[in-house]
Amino acid sequence: MTDIAWIDAALKSARPQAISALLRYFRDLDQAEEAFQEACLRALKNWPLNGPPRDPAAWLILVGRNAALDDVRRRKHSEPLPPEEVISDLDDAEADLADRLDSSRYRDDMLRLLFICCHPDLPATQQIALALRIVSGLSVKEIAHAFLVSESAMEQRITRAKRRIAEAQVPYETPGAIERAERLAAVAAMIYLLFNEGYSASGGTAHIRISLCEEAIRLARLLLRMFTAEPEIMGLTALLLLQYARTPARLDADGDIVLLEDQDRGLWHRDMIAEGLALVEKALRHRRAGPYQVQAAIAGVHASAARPDETDWSEIDQLYAVLETLQPSPVVTLNRAVAVSKLHGPAAALAMIEPLAAQLGGYFHFFGVQGAFLMQLGRTDAARVAFDRAIALAHTPAEAAHIRRHLDRLMKDSQAA
Amino acid sequence: MLYAILCYHDEDELSAWSKEEDDAVLAKRAVVTRRLAAEGRLGPVARLMPTTAAVTVRSGGEQLVIDGPFAETKEQLLGFYIIECATLEDAIATAQEMRRGESGAFEIRPLRLFEPGTAGT
After folding, report:
1. Taking 80 as the threshold, does the pLDDT of residue A79 lie above it?
2. Which residues of B fall within a CB distance of 8 Å from A278?
3. C-beta separation of A232 from A240 below 8 A
4. Which of the residues in chain B have pLDDT under 50?
5. Residues from chain A contacting residue B25 (CB–CB below 8 Å)
6. Residue B74: closest C-alpha in chain A
7. Which residues in B lie closer than 8 A to residue A224 (C-beta atoms)?
8. Who is most buried in A153, A196, A378, B98, counting CB within 10 A?
9. pLDDT tens across A81-137, in order?
């Protein structure tokens, strides 16, 4: 890697820790961001000359803080501090600061920063936008692209989010155990939301979608490195890895959706699957099941099958049963019905989803799944009605095209008959 | 003498690399390992999963299993090469060539015992 590429990676990786420490210091998001930007500019100037600091995050925090103080002093027309180039050696100060950073404080700093971005007062779209801007350091332009809105609209969205955060007054004291757990859960949910935004392909270019998924995985790993013994964070990280591993096989050359059972499993990322499975196994040792772990375990069963007909559907059925008790929802039952159809046939599965019709009447997948069961039972007219409703509810052209292929097949079958 | 070259790096930084950057690092190192392999001097090579996948067994009253890596340091052991070198100088030169342009650290350790093993064959 070149100097610049290395510095770029170092700045990106130091960003969450540096900004979170600067935030504790300034108690103001804009000021923390400005101080970090200033420190980055100085790093770009200094690091190629003096070599990399031992602890880039500590260097950036110290320099960012001094730069901001310097700025305040300048505004007050008082004696200026010596310029950066004259400070020959930051080493002592750096070592001292690094010592203090190593304490558990930095964990709470980082958690606070992440939590601020997903504060319950913020709507989901603002949460993701703010996290991408503040924690990941994506530009407003990049985020606007990902959400298919104009740059000025995104700028406004982020400004509004920051104002609400300031009004919400998140406390800066070290959080208690319960509060820490609540923050952790909120942050995990935000990371999952971010991942789904990238994974659901509801718009934007493929390139940006992929980077959202990768960013979510990076944040999940970061969170897990801070909270090494939390099985749900292991589960979350595993879930993202196992789902993301299928990306290369999810769409065909025309951009149409390829169902799990039709995917070319040779295209799946094997190393991500291996890591995901390792994390699931590690999480389950704790015997504290949670929704992320169970969903990861389900994804793991799919990922472990070399061919679709080798899928352990009874294991999947049991895991969905656990998920139904942990997190009851008609969508979970709908998913379980697919496993039931494999185990006990479409009639049993159809009976299982019938009571869900009222709750899922506006849900694309409900009619897609219902149509598929009806088709398997040979009830073509009813299947056609279900598929028509699914198309009407489709969010993306790929979803609609997928259902249309089912309809074409029905048409062909009825002509052949 | 057989030497282990142990690759240490900051995982936060590694996870900020793009796929292309990661591939470029591996391609650069492969230039060296291909040559060593041709000369019959390359032993096993391993890249470890992130430390988030690690558990550590420690002695307590009973054997404790703890989540995470053994050492809570900024730089973690992420992989290793076993190579045959005539001298330490030779091993250092090889490590320097592999590491060129990277920001992590490579530790060189002479091997005391070597069993190639049968796993994965």
Report:
1. no
2. 49, 53
3. no
4. none
5. 1
6. A55
7. 52
8. B98
9. 555 554 444 555 555 555 455 445 778 888 889 999 988 889 988 999 999 999 999
